[in-house]
Design brief:
This protein has 1 helix and 12 strands. The N terminus is likely disordered. The protein is rod-shaped. The longest helix is centred in the first third of the chain and has 61 residues. Helices cover 26% and strands 33% of the residues. Strands 1-11-10-6-7 form a 5-stranded mixed β-sheet, with no helix packed on it. Strands 2, 3, 4, 9 and 12 form a 5-stranded mixed β-sheet that branches. It has 2 domains: 62 residues; 141 residues, Immunoglobulin-like (Sandwich).
Length: 232
């Protein structure tokens, strides 16, 4: 009976030793597994930091360098057209002359011997000039054919004239009439027909500012050479 009891005790101790060994083995395995997991997480964290740093460095290198913007210098806006300086304004064909009351432009001009049945006096020809007039005043204005006169660039006191509408009725609907009204900002284009010496081809068409108190303002000249034309 004693031997049986010792045998049973021995078996129990054996089982006990085996159980402790399994527990120690499991604990050791768990510790090793935890260490491996910690190492893996630390390695992944380090790799993630390195990858992020590398990506940020690459983005900084790829980002274009922005040059500082140059400050733009705004140039003053120049009014289109020719204004008078010290009482005198001078232009050429196609220039816009800016007077106190209106703008005017001589668009074209030609010489002919007859215009729509109108024949000039002996020794003269006809100068046919197309003009555009635009009211720039703050109220309607009345325009007259005598607002414009032609000069043939010589020094004689009588070397100028007014349009033929000053002496006779218009012979064409295209002519600017002897008198007409222009509303605010309105414009009108028509023909100014003059009798000029037959031997001249260089001319100017002028306008002198006149005010209600009979005082004079600026004077404007448009100089040009007239082309040959057939008339109407």
């Amino acid at each position: 009976m004693k031997k049986l009891t010792l045998a049973l005790v021995g078996i129990a101790l054996a089982f006990s030793l085996v159980g402790c060994g399994n527990v120690k083995s499991t604990v050791k395995e768990n510790e090793e597994s935890q260490e491996q997991e910690d190492d893996r997480e630390e390695r992944e964290t380090r790799e993630t930091r390195e990858e992020r740093a590398a990506r940020e460095t690459q983005e900084e290198e790829e980002e274009p360098v922005q040059e500082p913007e140059e400050e733009s210098v705004e140039e003053p806006v120049q009014a289109e057209g020719i204004t008078a300086q010290e009482g005198y304004g001078e232009g050429r064909m196609g220039d816009t002359m800016k007077t106190y009351f209106f703008d005017y432009t001589i668009n074209s001009a030609y010489l002919c011997d007859e215009f729509n049945g109108y024949v000039p006096a002996e020794g003269n020809r006809l100068l046919v000039a197309e003009a555009t007039v635009k009211n720039t005043f703050n109220e309607s204005i009345v325009m007259y054919d005598t607002d414009f006169q032609v000069q043939w660039n010589s020094t004689g006191e009588e070397d100028y004239d007014f349009p033929i509408t000053f002496y006779a009725d218009p012979v064409s609907d295209e002519q600017l009439p002897a008198e007409y009204e222009l509303g605010i900002s309105k414009d009108r284009t028509g023909l100014l027909v003059f009798e000029v010496p037959a031997d001249k081809k260089d001319f100017s068409i002028s306008y002198l500012e006149l005010f209600d108190d009979d005082s004079e303002g600026n004077v404007f000249f448009v100089f040009f050479t007239a082309e040959e034309g057939s008339g109407e």
